[in-house]
Amino acid sequence: MTDLGRLEDLPADYVAELRAHNLVPLWPSLRGVLPPKIPTRQTQATHWPYQTIKPLLLRAGELTPIEKAERRVLVLANPGHTLEKMQASAAMYLGMQLLLPGEWAPSHRHTPNAVRMVVEGEGAWTTVDGEKCPMQRGDLILTPTGLWHEHGHDGTDPVIWLDVLDLPLAYHLEVSYHLNGSRQDVIPGRGDRAYARGGVVPTPVFGRSGKRYPMLRYPWADARAALIALASDRPELDAVQVTYVNPETGEDAENILGFHALMLRPGQSLKLPARSPAVVFHAIEGRARMATDAQAFDLAEADTCCIPGYTAITLTNTSADTPAFFFVADESPLHRKLGVYEVRPDNQPHMP
Ligand code: GTQ
User: Fold this and answer.
1) Which atom of ligand 1 has the smallest separation from the CA of 116?
2) Which atom number of ligand 1 is nearest to the Cα of residue 151?
3) What is the spatial distance between Cα 231 and Cα 225, in angstroms, rounded to a whole number?
4) How far, rounded to the nearest angstrom, does the alpha carbon of residue 192 sit from its chain's CA centroid?
5) 15 burial class (0-12, 13-18, 19+ CB within 10 angstroms)?
6) Residue among 74, 76, 117, 163 whose CB has most ligand 1 atoms within 8 A, to mutate
7) How far, in Å, from the CA of 233 to the mean position of ligand 1?
């Protein structure tokens, strides 16, 4: 590859004149923006242990009343992007949110898509678009773009959940904003009950709901049962994984980020090929050793980590007698829509 001309090779007065006219020569920066074979990634493999987050989040509960926070969240910020950017990867934002008994996080809606993965505690609920979704550990609750949502808590102990948003993307695209609303009227009916059986969807005489988001709550009990059935029916299957989809269309549950649940059999070591999207793993039950070519760490129960794109991953269940279950969030729907989704089983470029 020929070396391209540098900025220093140009006369200073020429560069100054270009700049004065808001012009920049491409060639000194061409390799920077189009690097050979593999993109430059700011995202660093980062591990956020729950035992570190939890006491600090409970402290936030003492320091800042909900009225002063609106959403009491500690953001899981990737140092590779600088902490101020509050992003886990190029498109993903992660936050750990605390709601104390009796508190209410008022109704709002915004352009970024969000989901909640419930980590700990009983008695909280999120009302989304009029549907009151109970929050139990491991449940996935969607709050897609534009839908009103508010959180409340009728239980006796703190409730903590993980928020995953495509906020960095929306912010970068200059489309991120919110609207405040008033307490929603709860409309009877629950998508997680109506769509409780895969392959069987409600069909009133005049046709299906046609709703873009017919199912807002995905109970952990059902996803877990699906994984256990899959593992026992398909002993040869390496990646025991399910994807959270729209039960009417089979498409990804949300437009930008993809959501999955993954099971590792006792003692299983799973090799995941390098893929273009960054990935977030959150341990719902059990634990695992997470390894890339560059580093390794142990994910304990309720821990969360982020791995940059184009990175091969080996996940090992360190328990010899119990399965481990993970919530997985990634940027794959976005990459597919953009036509840049790529798998590199041999670590070589496979440009689509
Ligand atoms: O619960 O609606 O972590 O609006 C960031 C922004 C949570 C929420 C976050 C939000 C929310």
Assistant:
1) 1
2) 1
3) 10
4) 20
5) middle
6) 163
7) 39
Unique residue bearing structure tokens 């997985």: 328
Do residues 75 and 86 make contact, with C-beta atoms less than 8 angstroms apart? yes
Count the neighbouring beta carbons within 10 Å of the beta carbon of residue 312: 17
Among residues 140, 153, 141, 137, the alpha carbon closest in space to that of 104 is found at 153
Query: pLDDT tens-digit profile of 258-273?
Result: 999 999 999 999 999 9
Question: 115: Cβ below 6 Å to ligand 1?
Answer: no
Question: What domains lie within the chain, and their CATH numbers?
Answer: 46-344 (2.60.120.10)
CA 110 to ligand 1 center in whole angstroms: 9
Rounded to two decimals, what is the model's pTM?
0.97
List, in order, residues 6 or more apart from 140 with CB less than 8 Å away.
Answer: 115, 116, 117, 217, 218, 220, 223, 244, 259, 327
Adjacent-strand bridge partners of 100: none
CA angle 115, 299, 291 (to 5 degrees): 105
Residue of the CA atom closest to atom 6 of ligand 1:
71
Q: What residues pair up with 177 in beta bridges, in sequence order?
A: none
Which of 99, 111, 165, 176 is the pocket-test mutation for ligand 1 (most atoms within 8 Å of CB)?
Answer: 165
Question: Per residue in 115-169, pLDDT tens?
Answer: 999 999 999 999 999 999 999 999 999 999 999 999 999 999 999 999 999 999 9
